[in-house]
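Team,

Forwarding the record for the chain on the shared tracking sheet. I've put the sequence and predicted structure together so nobody has to dig through attachments.
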Amino acid sequence: MPDPDLSVGQVQKMAELVGVPIDDVDLPEVANRFASLMQELDRLRDLDLEGIEPVTIFPDADAG
């Protein structure tokens, strides 16, 4: 269930700060989806990552 503490106004403000235009009619749906995404990402905090080494996804631009 999405975070009820995340308001449409907060999502609108975040979108404005990063320069992402969102129509007023779309704000409730975007806020709901964003809250759901944040909830799923929060589940990652429960993972035991002890001993797992980070992996470089993008090669170093200076190497080569």
